[in-house]
Each structure stands twice: as C-alpha cells, then as structure tokens.
Design brief:
two-stranded antiparallel ribbon; 3 helices; single chain; mainly alpha
Length: about 90
C-alpha cells in the first residue's frame, strides 16, 4: 500500500509508504542499515563479494530491539529448530 505524490516542478514521482505498514517500515529500516556500508546509488559491481558478505554478516549479527535485543541470525535458527521439532 503506497500512494504516489509528485515532486514540485518535476515529472519524477516519489512513493511514500504509509507508516502503519510495518513490513515496509522494516524494509526501510534495513535499507538504512545497509546504507551505512553501501552508499545510495552505488554500483554493487564496485564491491567485492567478500565485502557484501561481511556487511550481511554484520547486519545479521546486530542486535535488534524488535527481537528483544537478539539478532536475526539467532532468531532464524530458533525458528528452524522449532519447525523441525513440529514436523
């Protein structure tokens, strides 16, 4: 769910996401974290695979308030373990 707004004096359109859409908030937050390592409008070909893997590793090990200060990697593997036990 998003609405289009036109910037003044241009034909370019910008999308603004509704703040109540939590999935989009999460995506925007992750993008913000990635931008700490990879500037906006960067060409990914300018970065080595190792550098991108290290950025992903740092972000996946970074504690998140939303996860009770656990990290995404730990929570992912908890879910996998719970799924395996339920099967």
């Amino acid at each position: 769910e998003c609405r289009k707004e036109t910037k003044p004096q241009t034909t370019e359109k910008t999308r603004f996401f509704k703040p109540e859409n939590r999935v989009l908030q999460t995506v925007e937050n992750i993008n913000k974290l990635i931008r700490q390592y990879i500037p906006k409008k960067s060409n990914f070909n300018d970065f080595t695979d190792l550098y991108i893997k290290n950025v992903a590793k740092k972000l996946n090990l970074r504690p998140r308030k939303k996860l009770g200060f656990s990290n995404p990697k730990t929570e992912f593997f908890k879910q996998i373990a719970n799924f395996a036990l339920a099967s």
